[in-house]
Amino acid sequence: MITVAVRGHDVPGVDDFESLGAGLEGYGVHAVQLSLARQFPDLASVDRINPGMGQTCRRQLGAHGVDVAVLGCYINMIHPDPVRREALLRQFEAHLRFARCFGAPMVASETGSVLPEPTSRTEANFTEEAYRQARTSISRLVAYGERMGTMVGIEPGINHPICSVARTRRLLDEIDSPYLGVVFDPTSLIFAGNAGEQMDLARAGFDAFADRILAVHVRDYRIVPGEEQVQPCDNGEGIMDVPAVLDLVKAYRPMLAVVFEETKGPAIARVVERYANY
Fold this sequence. Notes:
This protein is α/β, with parallel strands linked by helices and 278 residues long.
């Protein structure tokens, strides 16, 4: 069995925690990845996030049978401007500090970029120096998470310093803490040229660090003809072998939260129909 989850900002018609809970309940979803900066940006800053906010969120979502499976705080943790980087790391630490008030076991992020905007690709992200910068930031966050009793979930991605199964395993070995885990998204490790290897990469990831996987992202996709791009789409409309990924989850991490990313509105109901009892 798996725990079906979606991102809160993929639920339409939401303007507060109450309407988010009602929307998720209406789709039959009982777990959410909540990213305050994406969904409620006015609430996400270091000086605004607080225990009462977390408790309100937990109470209002809980009234609809919804838990926060992942508290997202996606930052560029190796931002080239040290002043900006410090502000972002402090924002993540604030999320770690109050995550338990939201009922979230972890705070999650990708590992950023040597460029100011992580969405741009650069070979410089794959250097040893970029890896060491990421490890320094992650080590700091994990140490803070240990103090707060909250896990740090790192999402590897092909355009980031933690860009492969091997680098993820290395990071876990070098920061040897039970408070460091992985939010594993097999689609984040592919591009048009290796899309056919996605299940091999997924199996390799589970083989290498299954015991450290805190949540799984399932992001269906298409390859755009003529553009050689991986384009996310609603679950069931792309080429991802979703049942095969879910079989891995069931085999290695039963009842784990599986976040169906980029699946919006009515497509969420179809995911629940297909996989709620998987």
